[in-house]
Amino acid sequence: MYLNKVLLYGNLTRDPELKALPSGAQVVSFGIATNRSYKDKDGNKQEQTEFHNIVAFGRLAEVMGQYLKKGRPVYVEGRMQTRSWDKDGQKQYRTEVVVDSFQFGADGGRMEGGDSAPRKAEGNQASSQDIEYPSEEINPEDIPF
Q1: What average pLDDT score do residues 73-82 get?
Q2: E-strand spans in the chain?
Q3: What is the dihedral of CA 139, 142, 144, 145, to 10 degrees?
Q4: Who contacts 117 (Cβ-Cβ below 8 Å, separation ≥6)?
Q5: Dihedrals φ, ψ of 125, to 5°?
Q6: Residue 64 DSSP symbol
Q7: 76: exposed, middle or buried (C-beta count within 10 Å: 0-12, 13-18, 19+)?
Q8: What domains appear along the chain, each with residue ranges and CATH number?
Q9: Using an 8 Å Cβ cutoff, are 98 and 108 in contact?
Q10: Residues 6+ apart with CB under 8 A from 10
Q11: How crowded is residue 69: how many other Cβ atoms within 10 Å of its Cβ?
Q12: Residue range 78-84: average pLDDT?
């Protein structure tokens, strides 16, 4: 069995570009930057940035084109795909992630009915002060698993 699965969480490097294919289907393309922090052999903290080409089709493309903006975080799931074409006698290649699903990033808020743009959830998240913890101790033998 083979597996082609990509999970990325990063920031958009440019606004999504929404286009229509000759068939009428919608396609959106944009870029995502991801960061990786590590320590080099001398113990100094280093940061490496990778840039990913992203593409989505159909209704997913329409939603992404409407709500995502440059600099905002996004989580995408999809598969890797490499396309090739000839340009001026030279073979050109482009590797991209074809999106199957996505979620707005942590500060991207949530979509609410009737709005034309996502809003941040205000007052709907419980803080640690709002949570009621049980006053009695929990006996591990009472847990059913």
Answers
A1: 95
A2: 6-12, 17-20, 26-39, 45-57, 73-87, 90-104
A3: 30
A4: 67
A5: -100, 135
A6: H
A7: buried
A8: 6-106 (2.40.50.140)
A9: no
A10: 32, 33, 34, 35, 52, 73, 74
A11: 15
A12: 95
Cα separation of 121 and 82, whole Å?
Answer: 38
pLDDT tens across 5-62, in order? 999 999 999 999 999 999 999 999 999 999 999 999 999 999 999 999 999 999 999 9
Q: Which amino acid is at 66?
A: Q
Burial class (CB within 10 angstroms; exposed 0-12, middle 13-18, buried 19+) of 31:
middle
Contacts of 72 (CB under 8 A, 6+ apart): 11, 12, 104, 105, 107, 108
